[in-house]
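Subgroup meeting minutes
Present: P.N., E.W., G.H.
Scribe: E.W.

1. P.N. recapped why we're keeping a running log of single-chain structure predictions: easier to compare across weeks, and new members can see raw inputs and outputs side by side.
2. G.H. added today's entry (760 aa).
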Amino acid sequence: MATYLYRIGRWAFRRRRLVGGLWLGALILAVAAAAVAPAGEEEDLSMPGTESQQAFDLLDERFPDSNSQGAEARLVFQAPDGQKVTAGEHRAAVKDTLGSLDGGKQVASTTDPYETGAVSKDGTIAYSTITYTEGAVDLTEPTKAALEDAAGEARDAGLTVEIGGSALESEEEPGGTTEMIGVAVAALVLIVALGSLVAAGLSLLTAIVGVVISFGLITALAAPLGLTSTVSILALMLGLAVGIDYALFITSRFRDELAQGSEPEEAAGRAVGTAGSAVVFAGATVFIALVGLGVVGIPELTRIGMGGAGAVGLAVLVALTLVPALFGMFGHRRILPRKARKATRPGGERPHRAGAAAGKQGLGTRWARFVLRRPVPVLMIAGLGLGAVAVPALSLELGLPGDETKSTETTERRAYDLLSEGFGPGFNGPLTVVVDTPESGDTEAATDQVVQTVRGLDGVASVGDPALSESKDTAVLTAVPETAPTSGETKDLVNEIRGAVSGVEANTGAAVLVTGTTAMNIDISEAMSDALIPYLSVVIGLAVLLLLVVFRSVLVPIKAALGFLLSVGAAFGVLVAVFQWGWGADLVGIETTGPVMSLMPILIIGIVFGLAMDYEVFLLSRMRESYAHGASPGEAVVTGFRHSGRVVAAAAIIMVSVFAGFIGIHMPTIQTMGVGLAAAVAFDAFVVRMAIVPAVLALLGHRAWWLPRILNRVLPNVDIEGEALSRHATGAPSVPPVPPEPAPQPVPDAASPRQPVDWY
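Output recorded in log:
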């Protein structure tokens, strides 16, 4: 693989104008396609195969008119303190408000709360349901303005009015202040790490090209494929983070090759052949893990995974082709830091490798030697620390948030609170019970038994009158719980209803199904919990297999998998502490605690798996290369940290900054993802890879790189370190490997035939 990528790197460098033109054309086409494409619709989560989804599908078939896709709004009215909303002047204000909406464009119907009984028992709160002919994303601004103006008229009349439902929902667009702060931090880290504005700008530019293309393609395909705003934001988040990191790794290796005396074209080829091999492997792991989300069976999760995988795939292609092309466009000397540029000027003296190493030890070298001297204390502190952070994960609860998690500054949240106050906490999460008797059964008799059974259960506040389908073979009724939609008591009630109606099914032959948004959320959460361990097992197995092939070692993959588990466990602990327990919730703008988003654990596992392998590969590939060339296990660790430690640390800071920047988007999915991914990357890069990995390698010694003979014969040689380049690359210096020195304290990396100068 290294030889093939080496050729791609040299070709892209030589054909830089062609490569740049092709990517520019792709960028223009993607932007144009996004500009003319119709807007996609936000779809509710679905879970094929669950009871609640079966009931939804049955309702669509038997009650097509009542299950239209039009948006809904709830106007919630509250009378002033000490007054009733049923008073004459308030009743008139409500009717005038609803009258101003009747007959409006895109308005299908409005309900009168005084005729439908939508007034609280104490007479202080009432609500009206406004149904529209179009979905929320297709409602025009005049339609939304008319709804808000109507609410304003009622407020002028002395009523408190809030608007719930989906009519005012809008997609959160990326590009806000917090995201820009994340990108600014990433740019600053690049400048400090690379010491060159050109090199930093190159990494940012290539990442932005990949992100814009993927964002444009997702926008263009949103309507036909049902892609939501969550898909596009995740693609932006992932594409930006990995795009910057991949460009950083290749740029860093390019500078190392230049420092070794390679010609620019040769350096570009070697950078893509070595660091590019690691980029391909790391990108492939992220791609596979994200595509694998489709096995869970949730269409929305599948679309999220496919969108993120596409963004990562584009980032890999950009890094392998556009980055080396820009090396030639910008001029190789401008990519070097100022000190290195002076050394490479005509007549400038290039420092000797050994002298440079002996004269200065960087932070990575000093840290590696510290860990090698004290591996047991470092391992215990790091392992126990991550274990302590992971303890809250034992209390992980999964759910899907609704309006109750929104800020109290939003009218949707205030409408939710008013409805809970006037009609009980369970009013916002009613359960829909479907009674199906397609055969010659007595639908009314079976429905009566179901009604009596549900009414007799503890925790049921009320049961509405059933409605029959036109064919008289299906009935639907609404049961309102006494508890809030996301509470554990409501979940228990759903399971209790399903168990209680089994007797009715046995007696009548009818099929009784419980559905509704609350039941669907419960079913999805349970499905996610059930799929978590199998998916984690698949990911861990894949990690062990891939690392076994890459590093040709048995213990290194096992160590990497255990470290990955620690990172994920600690990230879940942070999610529970913030989103369930409320620790530091104010810092991320969370006003109401509740269950963690159902999709997050599996989604975070899939993403972090690939990102964790990034750092594992980039750090250990240098160690493996040094060890293969004769260095001792300890000096191989030092070599890896000297040449890759700083770059990996910079890459991790960049990725954490990008992920944290998306916490400011007020969407529960994105906020949870931002916190979880930022925490996971920080733990994995700075605790697992920087502390646990060198400590374990120090304790294992030569055993870390042991591989049974049979596996050595069977496993393919992917050559991620680029050893084959010394035989196939043209113009490369030919330096025979030096055998390892027998001295107890060998000179660092003296055994390596070809090591880059640490210019920074």
